[in-house]
């Protein structure tokens, strides 16, 4: 039977009741929430920066007066970054459930900072590749720790729009990476020989600034509660309430259905237990999440990692000008989650996930048809992709939102990691290889067929979400997925 527990730490394997989730969800949006969203959400800016930098400076790294890499070695550096991200997500995701969100979102940022700074000083391919792998480790770990912390700290009524906007900020990093490469590689600034090193060094400088901000983001009170650290959780949430009360006045009451949420003090489940839960107890949720993650990963990587190849091979765009075409693409991607995000909280998760997935698939299929017919030039091709990915960016962000809110708190970070790893591992490796081979053939019909396959994947995933998805909008996390053992 559940037992009421105030501030004393309950014994292990004891079920208790707490109002901590309800107190977090009732808070009005404030400067405190802005600080948390910016400090944590910048992880996606860094990822976008890193991915775009490698694409933008790839040709420069092939020059004999830089690292003298081959095209294959440039490709391997991208693959190693993805491999590092997959491994980092799995390793750090498990640690985030065991050790806490804050320790990990500081540790993963430190790994990224050191690795990307070391990249700037790489003397040869071996060191460069190792640094890219380690950079991926840090970024992959960020996804698990940050998505968990954001969902646990942001009020339920705005969780959808905030999560989507933060995930969509990847494209601010992409635009920043494209801009940095254009400026720093210019012969009037640093030039190619030193400019590529300056690009990576500035990424490390940005990370240092973020560390200083993140130090003030607290541990998740929800995580502390499930680990029996109720005194610490109470101090943190009382400080948050006091800060917000000082600017917003009296706080609204806690919702009656969140005034006594059942939790159980227990250790984080092991990998084996989490996999059993995903495959048995949460099988339907796992299938939906997996479908969403794999489909969006293939869709995105198929286009983004072959973006420059299509522009140069079929439209004759010089390599030096490819970065200019990233800006409209990044703009559409950044605006989609920002403008469509509120609808995920009001219209609902299932409907909006289905709509964005299906419509982006239809959009890509139509763009592929126009590509085959020769109706597009480089500019209109970029604009079509921008329109398609206005929808697709919101769709992809909703996949991460789904993974972070439909599984219990005790296994949330590892669950995010598993689906991120599988989605990124399949889409990140298969899509660029497949589309790259199709582009190499020189056949527009073959490339359009690849686009059609990606479109079919997201349409199927969207229809599955409409039929079997979870209506999670405006609901407390503990109602969507009760803590493990709380019903015992």
Automatic annotation (TrEMBL):
Bilayer topology term: Multi-pass membrane protein
GO MF term (any one): carboxylic acid transmembrane transporter activity
UniProt entry tagged with the keyword Transmembrane helix: yes
Compartment(s) of residence: Membrane
Chief localisation class: membrane
Pfam families: Sugar_tr
Matches recorded under PROSITE patterns: MFS
Recorded GO CC terms: plasma membrane
Keywords assigned: Membrane, Transmembrane, Transmembrane helix
Membrane-spanning residues: 32-54, 74-92, 104-121, 127-150, 162-182, 194-213, 287-310, 322-340, 352-372, 378-401, 413-439, 451-470
Transmembrane helix recorded as keyword: yes
InterPro entries, sorted: MFS_dom (IPR020846), MFS_sugar_transport-like (IPR005828), MFS_trans_sf (IPR036259)
Location of the Major facilitator superfamily (MFS) profile domain: 36-473
Name of the featured protein: Putative transporter Major facilitator superfamily MFS-1
Organism in which the protein naturally occurs: Cupriavidus taiwanensis
């Amino acid at each position: 039977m559940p037992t009421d527990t105030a501030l004393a730490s309950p014994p292990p394997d004891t079920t208790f009741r707490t109002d901590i989730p309800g107190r977090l969800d009732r808070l009005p949006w404030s400067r405190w929430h802005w600080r948390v969203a910016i400090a944590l959400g910048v992880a996606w800016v860094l990822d976008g920066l890193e991915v775009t930098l490698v694409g933008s400076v790839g040709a420069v790294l092939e020059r004999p007066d830089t690292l003298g890499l081959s095209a294959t070695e440039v490709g391997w550096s991208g693959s190693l970054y993805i491999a590092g991200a997959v491994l980092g997500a799995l390793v750090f995701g498990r640690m985030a459930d065991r050790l806490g969100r804050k320790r990990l979102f500081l540790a993963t940022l430190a790994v990224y900072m050191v690795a990307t700074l070391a990249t700037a000083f790489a003397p040869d391919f071996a060191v460069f590749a190792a640094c890219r792998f380690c950079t991926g480790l840090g970024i992959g770990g960020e996804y698990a720790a940050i998505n968990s912390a954001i969902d646990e700290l942001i009020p339920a009524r705005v969780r959808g729009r905030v999560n989507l906007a933060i995930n969509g900020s990847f494209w601010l990093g992409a635009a920043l990476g494209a801009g940095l490469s254009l400026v720093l590689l210019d012969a009037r600034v640093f030039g190619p020989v030193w400019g590529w090193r300056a690009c990576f060094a500035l990424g490390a400088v940005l990370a240092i600034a973020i560390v200083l901000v993140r130090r003030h983001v607290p541990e998740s009170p929800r995580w502390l509660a499930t680990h029996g650290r109720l005194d610490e959780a109470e101090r943190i949430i009382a400080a948050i309430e006091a800060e917000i009360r000082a600017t917003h006045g009296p706080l609204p009451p806690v919702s009656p259905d969140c005034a006594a949420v059942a939790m159980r003090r227990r250790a984080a489940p092991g990998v084996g237990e989490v996999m059993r839960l995903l495959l048995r107890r949460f099988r339907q949720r796992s299938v939906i999440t997996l479908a969403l993650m794999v489909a969006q990963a293939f869709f995105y990587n198929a286009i983004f990692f072959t973006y420059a190849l299509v522009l140069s091979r079929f439209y004759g765009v010089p390599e030096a000008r490819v970065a200019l075409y990233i800006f409209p693409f990044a703009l559409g991607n950044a605006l989609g989650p920002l403008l469509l995000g509120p609808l995920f909280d009001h219209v609902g998760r299932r409907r909006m996930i289905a709509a964005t997935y299906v419509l982006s698939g239809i959009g890509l299929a139509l763009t592929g048809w126009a590509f085959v017919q020769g109706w597009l030039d480089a500019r209109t091709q970029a604009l079509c992709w921008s329109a398609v990915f206005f929808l697709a960016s919101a769709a992809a962000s909703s996949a991460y939102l789904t993974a972070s809110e439909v599984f219990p708190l005790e296994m949330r970070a590892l669950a995010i990691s598993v689906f991120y790893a599988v989605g990124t591992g399949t889409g990140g490796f298969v899509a660029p290889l497949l589309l790259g081979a199709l582009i190499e053939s020189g056949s527009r019909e073959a490339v359009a067929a690849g686009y059609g396959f990606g479109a079919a994947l997201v349409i199927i995933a969207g229809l599955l979400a409409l039929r079997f998805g979870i209506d999670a909008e405006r609901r407390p996390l503990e109602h969507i997925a009760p803590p493990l053992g709380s019903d015992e």
